[in-house]
Hints:
Elements: E1 4-6, E2 8-13, H1 20-30, E3 34-37, H2 38-51, H3 59-68, E4 71-73, E5 82-84, E6 87-88, H4 96-106, H5 109-127, E7 132-137, H6 140-144, E8 150-155, H7 158-171, H8 178-194, E9 207-210, H9 216-229, E10 233-235
Helix pairs in contact: 1-9, 2-3, 2-4, 3-5, 7-8
Amino acid sequence: MAQARLRGVVALDGPSGTGKSTVSRRLAAELGAAYLDTGAMYRAVTLAVLRAEVDTGDPAEVTRVARAARLTMGTDPLAPAVLLDDEGVEQQIRGPEVTGAVSAVSAVAEVRELLVATQRELIAGALEEPGGVVVEGRDIGTVVAPEAGLKVYLTASSDARALRRTKQDSSEGRDGDLGSTHADVVRRDALDSGRKVAPLRRADDAMELDTTELDVAGVVEQLNKLVESRDLLGEGR
């Protein structure tokens, strides 16, 4: 029997630490779909801004750097590469400097306009193959792909999200302190939800899924059920 494959777009939104990246990649891999991490795009642009030693509070300069940056996103869920000016920066964009500055950079309207256009191009390309794509971020269901066949807003308690972030940092060789990570989670929630352009919020037609008490397998199981309920599966090769 042919394996079922995703048709169309699954949009996964939510704040930091809800497990978006991990479950999005696994869901895409299981359903033979492409995968796009839009947060990584903003992080890559933020890295470019920091390397250019530009003030993140200067929208014009931030936009100039963003327009000049050559950003390439791999959409294979098994190897989701992020290239900045032909350099793989998957690890660098997860560091504390980028994490501390990304909300400011992503709040610049011109940067969002630039990256949303690129994100829509990547989604369109993935759908041409034909196939489906799992897209994760903070404004996918509301701005980037409002016509997605399935929109899910992932949530979790701030304590659970801080613990996950701390464990992830430690496993990847970065210093992790639970107290400071929790403070950063709360800070980013406020910044992302309070920005004027494309704030973090649940789309009106999105399903909400609390991941506080669920492991990765449990979240993916729930997502698979939602995909099936929306009739987004077709026969694979």
